[in-house]
Amino acid sequence: MTQNLVEKTPVTLLGLGAMGTALARAWLAAGHPLTVWNRTPDRAAALADEGARVADTAAAAVAANSLVVICLLDDASVTETLAGTDLAGRDVVDLTTGTPAEARARARWVSERGARHLDGGIMAVPPMIGVPESGGYVFYSGSHELFERYQETLAVPAGTTYVGEDPGFAALHDVALLSAMYGMFAGAAHAFALIRTEDIDPAAFAPLLADWLVAMAPAVHRTADQLRSGDYTKDVVSRLSMQVAGTPTFLNTAEQQGVSPELLTPYFELMRRRLAEGDGEEDLTGVIDLLTH
Ligand code: NDP
User: How high is the pLDDT of residue 293?
Assistant: First the structure.
């Protein structure tokens, strides 16, 4: 069934934290009838002034519309909130961050209650919601039919990227990207720690660091190509043996500058293990084997 182009799809939203409130405002601004519920009712007051219908209970909010979007703190809060609701016939889109296993279990749980389920992983912070040029988007996985049916509505707060029928895939993509982000933040923390030991302006260093990270980022495409082909020596630009030989420079510099190497050493250790077990002509891709085998 296609969405009516004149009457915007009505949305029920459970959860008005920082993210839920941003989602609510985006749907209200786009003219979608919106029913909201939040455990702490005060947080709904401003949205009521902006046109949202405020339900007294989660059950009443769920009863109001077919499309029920959930954006709560964690999976446990979703269990608590849905406990007294009748989900039969509802289309549940859960944007609460969780693990792939939680998403799969939730999909089964929702299905057992006669409803359909789509999981989402939000790749945005609240100020990016409702701002298409921000680049924010949401990974979706689970029922493709549900995704297609509501895509236009779901695209109001942020872009939509569907990653598969497995309900766990949105969470897996979400966590994978955020894990890479933490690796980047860890590297940046070490870099700032190094330059802070000298009279170097962090504000002058920051653009150099940002540009370098951007310049290095496309290396992930080579990694993907090597993983697909199984040939980790394909198109190598910096051999593993050369890179391992260079690690003392990093560790000695850290020591000389009085900086703890603890963010670097786990990765260097994996590089060394791979070199000991494998081929020095490889790229760094073999490290992935050590993590997964
Ligand atoms: P907040 O901490 O601002 O809000 C948490 C929400 O969960 C509130 O509505 C809160 O209700 C509700 N809640 C917590 N525990 C329970 C419970 N036991 N029963 C019922 N309701 C409960 O978090 P955000 O809005 O920022 O985040 C919501 C989701 O969005 C999270 O899963 C988060 O990981 C995800 N997300 C957030 C991002 C961000 O930058 N903020 C970025 C990407 C994803 P109450 O008001 O009563 O406390």
Answer: 66
